[in-house]
Amino acid sequence: MDFNIPFMKYRKIAAYASLALFVISIVSLSFRGLSLGLDFSGGTLVEVTYEDSVNLEEVRGMLTNNGFDDYQVVNFGSDRDVLIKIA
C-alpha cells in the first residue's frame, strides 16, 4: 500500500481555519470574559451533611445573620446534603 497524501496542498486552508478559530476565541473572551472557579477566585467550599432534611432558607438566614454576604447554598446528592460556597 502506497499512500500519497499532499499535506502541503491544504496548508492555506489549515492556516485560515486556525486564524478563524483564533479570532473567534479572542472575540468570545472579550465579550464573555473568563468564568473563574472557586480555585482561582478565592473563597471557601463547605459540604455539610445533616441527619434530617434541611431547609435551605434557614441555612441562608444563619449565614446572613453571621455576617456573610456573598454566598451560595445548594443541595447536592440528597436533601440532607448541602453545599455552601462562600466568596
Structural class: alpha+beta
The overall average pLDDT, rounded, is 89
For the sheet with most strands, the description reads: 3 strands, antiparallel
Q: Helix share of residues?
A: 40-55%
Number of helices: 3
Quantity of strands, as a count:
3
User: Distance N terminus to C terminus?
Assistant: 61 Å
**Overall morphology:** elongated
Looking across the biggest beta sheet, what order are the strands in? Answer: 1-3-2
Uncertain segments = none
Strand content: 15-25%
Write the element-wise H/E pattern from the N-terminal end onward.
HHEHEE
- The radius of gyration over CA amounts to 25 Å
Write structural notes for this entry.
The structure is a single chain. This protein has 87 residues and is an alpha+beta fold. It has a domain at 38-86. It has helices at residues 11-32, 38-41, 56-65; strands at residues 44-49, 71-76, 78-86. A three-stranded antiparallel sheet has the order 1-3-2, covered by helices on one side. A hairpin with a 1-residue loop joins strand 2 and strand 3. The model has no long low-confidence stretch (mean pLDDT 89).
Keyword list:
single chain, about 90 residues, alpha+beta, 3-stranded antiparallel beta sheet, 3 helices, 3 strands, about 40% helix
In short:
The protein is an alpha+beta fold and 87 residues long.
What is the fold's blueprint, element by element?
Layout (H helix, E strand, L loop, with lengths): L10 H22 L5 H4 L2 E6 L6 H10 L5 E6 L1 E9 L1
Antiparallel strand pairs: 1-3, 2-3
